[in-house]
Amino acid sequence: MKVASFSFFESNQVGIVDEARGRIRAIDGVRDMLDLIERIEEIRPRLSGGGSDLSLSDVRLLAPIPIPRRNIFCVGKNYRDHAVEFSRSGFEAGAAKGAEIDEYPAVFTKPASAVVGPEAAVSLHPQATSSVDYEAELAVVIGVGGRDIAKQDAYRHVFGYTIINDVTARDRQRKHKQWFLGKALDTFCPMGPWITTADEIEPTNLAVKCWVNGELRQDGNTRDLIFDIPSLIATISAGLTLYPGDIIATGTPAGVGIGRNPPLFLKVGDVVSISIDGIGILTNPFA
Q1: Closest CA to 217 of 135, 278, 286
Q2: Residue 158 and residue 249: Cα distance in Å, rounded?
Q3: H or E segment at 217?
């Protein structure tokens, strides 16, 4: 099942997506996506019912969780080839040569205020940065909260999966010797186009691809994650309670702009599209 947040005549709703038919059917009695996730077992019996639907072309898709309850958890350098390209780029502050692969996951956050939906313009913020980069990522949406979640139980806590573009100001990332300021700018977390529920996804073998203006830049697969999804959930939840609707971006494969020689950053008018098997395509223009 694919579930989306959308706006129709200024009314924000949650609906079930029939991608093949290009239709979306609103779910009655649901306030928002967080409400659906928290009450999914109560709501599930009526999800298969009929009812009128709308053409996807007639609605405006929002980020699946337009206003997350707190920051998005993100993982850095979680594909081996990307860890190497990042280390060689000169944009990683403090990395020792030969230590490209971390022993433990590198976890940072993006503020909820950075989230925008499909087709929403991403600001290049020229007053703050001159080196904006893209990062295609599979994102995990937590369904059942918990703390100290064991790896073997981790998938029981997953509601579904979506796509995130972890947009990054590389100069800020390097200058400040940490990642938050380079990741936190307004509009720097495009998310969507919807959530595919966990029962329809095999997350260990998903193609992750990214195009800039139609040129394929990233072509990875989640089987190459250094730290898999159960490891990430176990690590992040150790002593820290995860809540329904929390989002974990799992890292990006090789092929980002800083991996080019010379680096190739985004400019006004560029369009970035990300596809992940079983989910869909997230597209955003940069302005």
Answers
A1: 135
A2: 13
A3: strand 215-221
User: How do residues 46-88 score in pLDDT, each as one tens digit?
Assistant: 887 666 799 999 999 999 999 999 999 999 989 987 777 766 6
> Tokens 């999966």 correspond to what residue?
161
Matching residue, tokens 């059942």: 144
Instruction: Please tell me the least confidently modeled range out of 37-46, 80-89, 120-129.
Output: 80-89
Alpha carbon dihedral 256, 136, 146, 234, in 10-degree steps, equals: -40
Residue 99 has pLDDT above 60, yes or no: no
The total number of residues written for the chain in this structure: 287
Residue 132 amino acid letter: V
Name which of 32-36, 75-79, 238-242, 266-270 the model is least confident about: 75-79
SS3 content of the chain, % helix, strand, coil (to 5): 20, 35, 45
Identify the burial level of 199 via C-beta atoms within 10 angstroms of its C-beta, where 0-12 means exposed, 13-18 middle and 19 or more buried.
Answer: exposed
Angle in degrees, CA 158, 76, 183, rounded to 5: 95
Distance (Å, rounded) from C-alpha 107 to C-alpha 140?
14
pLDDT digits (tens, 9 = 90+) for 128-165: 999 999 999 999 999 999 999 999 999 999 999 999 99
Secondary structure element (H or E) that encloses residue 89, with its range: helix 80-89
Question: 110 Cβ partners below 8 Å, 6+ apart?
Answer: 71, 72, 74, 166, 183, 184, 188, 189, 249
Euclidean distance between CA atoms 22 and 75, whole angstroms = 33
Cα–Cα distance for residue pair 71/124, rounded to 1 Å: 21
Residue 155 to residue 202: CA distance in whole angstroms = 11
